[in-house]
Amino acid sequence: MNRLDALNSIAASASRGELTFPANVDASLKLQQALADPDCHIEAAVRLVQADPLLAARTVAIANSAAYNRSGNDITNVRTAVQRLGVRTLQSVVASLIVRQLGSTITDPQLKAKADQLWEHTAHVAALSQVIARRVTRVDPDTALFAGIMHEVGGFYLLSRAGEYPGILDGDAQEWVEHGEQAVGRGVLTKLKVPEAVMQAIEALWEGLRAIPPESPADTLLLANDLAPVASPLNENPAAIAVRAKRAASSIDCLIGEHDTLSSIMAESAEEVQSLLRVLVH
Fold first, then answer.
1. What is the CA radius of gyration of the chain?
2. Model's pTM, two decimal places?
């Protein structure tokens, strides 16, 4: 099977909802679905988080990041961390765990390097999205963070399946964009029961059009993707990276409100971005 046939095959299966996940991802999917239940209360969420040591550690770490710990008072237990974050932010924490688990199943060194770079890119976009939402576009920061974490989940799924299709990642990155990114991405996002607002923001990212100055969840994600210093290894070649960098530079100094520029706001928010980034990457 040649490369394009393999991409089309994975895309077609994803479009039909025929997705193959590792066992550890299936467990996290059940947790994500429980948190997505409108009747899931804080105490139930605490019990779910405490049952997973890795998730518990990550939850406490994010609750202590600069983005969420405005008072500077660190906390040391899951219950207080969950109360500080809330159930919606917990969904983003679990989503990051799912994405990382997809990458953890990869053993081939070249594929693993791509997965590591893709996660670093994802973490940058997620951290930037959260800060841009709160400081610039004034949209819901929880939605922005979740969209940032999920925006490349289709790529992680592709990498988790790439070992079955030798050579599938050879050649022009644009072929993945044209023949698989949207179909696979939609399939995985649907499986994960991603909210419609997040789905729309990610679909807008695929289209690549945003307003200046940015104002919507889609604009937030697009701008964060443009500003991310680490590129996706799947859908950007050197020419595309140059275009993205130029596009970001053209908007970095746009006026936000009556007095601030985007560049000044992002400079003021650099510590918040780095604090959240450190938790997500490690």
1. 18
2. 0.84
